[in-house]
Write a structure and sequence with these properties.
Strand order of the largest sheet: 1-2-3-5-6-7-8-9
Shape: elongated
């Protein structure tokens, strides 16, 4: 084989090696993908209010996404303080229905600290009057991000299942509980 042919083969092999070793996520940048996220975590009442009346719940969860693997999620969520009717809780007991007022969340990649920022103002929660189990369904919108997810957009639906574990008898003393979430939607970045 001539020296110029050997150099072309060597250069071609080097280009293929570089392409094959490029990070998978970077190759997907600029595309719209299906987004799935599963989280488990805890919440407590926060000293924060979206509307100046009532309190938001602050939550922290460990998550896994199909886009980025493991991550941590933190956010605030507040329902309207007045019941919007009755419902049947997920355990079959009588419950009270509340509409979501607002939610904002940040999911942080444990790989490199890149973040996905999302919000929601559309959702319904049914909480049992006797067992304190609840289920909430909300529609969310990705409103931005940092690092690899800078300028991210997207939307989807999240189903949240949880249980209030502690709720003091005195009004406005707060709540503490656990929840699991399952989200499906799309993301572009």
């Amino acid at each position: 084989m001539r020296p110029s042919a050997i150099r072309r083969v060597a250069v071609s092999a080097a280009v293929i090696a570089c392409v094959m070793s490029a990070p998978k996520q970077e190759a997907l940048a600029g595309q719209t993908r299906i987004f799935k996220e599963v989280c488990s975590g805890a919440f407590s009442t926060a000293s924060f209010s979206f509307d100046g009346s009532g309190s938001a719940g602050q939550y922290t969860a460990e998550c896994t996404t199909n886009i980025d693997g493991p991550g941590l999620k933190s956010g605030l969520s507040q329902n309207v303080t007045v019941s919007s009717g009755s419902c049947t809780a997920r355990d079959g007991t009588a419950g009270t229905k509340y509409d979501l007022l607002n939610r904002i969340a940040v999911t942080t990649s444990t790989k490199d600290g890149s973040q996905i920022i999302s919000s929601s103002d559309s959702g319904v929660e049914c909480i049992s009057n006797t067992t304190s189990v609840y289920e909430k369904t909300e529609n969310w919108t990705i409103t931005g991000g940092t690092g690899r997810f800078k300028n991210a957009t997207g939307s989807g639906t999240e189903v949240i299942k949880g249980q209030v574990l502690a709720e003091p008898a005195s009004p406005d003393s707060g709540k503490f509980g656990v929840e699991q979430t399952n989200s499906t939607g799309t993301i572009s970045w």
